Amino acid sequence: xSKQRSATLTEAQRVSLAQKLLRERLCxxxxxxxxxxxxxxxxxxxxxxxxxxxHGESNSILIVDPRGSGKTMVRSIKRCTPxxxxxxxxxxxxxxxFLKYSRNLExxxxxxWNIPGIFGNFAENLAFLLEALKxxxxxxSRPVLFVLDEFDLFAHxxxxxxxxxxxxxxxSAQTPVAVVGLTCRLDVLELLEKRVKSRFxxxxxxxxxxxxxxxxxxxxxxxxxxxxxxxxxKFSDEWNxxxxxxxxxxxxxxxxxxxxxxxxxxxxLHSLLFLAVSRVSxxxxxxxxxxxxxxxxxxxxxSKANVLHGLSIxxxxxxxxxxxxxxxxxxxxFNFQMVHNGTTSLSAHGKPGxxxxxxxxxxxxxxxxxxxxxxxxxxxxxxxxxxxxxxVLPYNVxxxxxxxxxxxxxxLLYI
Length: 415
What we know:
It contains 19 helices and eight strands. Helix 2 runs antiparallel to helix 12 (266-278). The strands form two sheets. The chain has a five-stranded parallel beta sheet with strand order 2-3-4-1-5, with helices on both faces. The protein has three domains: 2-24 and 213-299, no CATH class; 39-206, 3-Layer(aba) Sandwich (Rossmann fold); 305-414, Arc Repressor Mutant, subunit A. 27% of the residues are buried. Helix content is 50%, strand content 9%.
């Protein structure tokens, strides 16, 4: 059947299907079975949750790491444990499965059960859940897993009521509860109140990857390979062979090494590979070295320099005037009149004529975030701005010299 289907596929359909599969993989619509390069952390968390599920131990743990390094993917560990998954992410939500199990009056006697959704606010939801957990029993109640994504946001909540009650339940000999917090802040424990911190087990897992460059290349090869069940085995073999040879090219290895040394973040790697896969077409049905080189060039391009490409003459003059003000006054705030006077000085040098609507051009630069208000709470904040020297870097303004050297001599005279 697969042979008949592969025979009916045209070259365009094969390429389109291959791109679709790889894009789904690179856009995280299909996550791997387990995190890469985090085996010890994965086993640590799995063992902790197994003790909760098998022995009825209540535990709490915090997973700390930078964004994009695999915190959210650790949730897939729920497939390995017979736990009831109740996810909490920025809003409180009671799992429908939890309500279904908790309606069993033999496990939780003496509670008046309400229809789901009848609770009007967070306090009623929390009171209902805590009452159900407190009526539980370590030997007979079903273990519950709470995953608190963006744990630091809950720490900023007034009185930290949710954290206090969940951790308090995890310290009691009632319903077995595992509380897993996910955060990217290393100082998150400093945000906790004393009563909350005293109930936390102070277990932390840091997901700092120990991935080597050879493992990194293996991940690239695996991400670019088509699955064995691809409808056209011949096309799949050719594609996978080209992906393997691509990873062996010296120029490609240099690109991957540069990205590896800059960041081991797989999100950045997926962005690079996504651009390379998008360049595949019917005329070029396999990945080439030039595709990855172009993708790397696009990824490493300076976004602010690209913004300068689309500015008008007036807007460029305002940027140059702000650059000079920023250098002259060492980053001190300035107002629109000072910037406008700078463009008048430019007009005196090059005699380009009178500019129209400079305030509109200045507002456009504000929308592009090339400048920003000093203090949004100030009465005259709209007219007082600080040049984003960290964004409009000196080499970006100097870039104008090379870009407009043939067409706009006015700018060159002033620079």
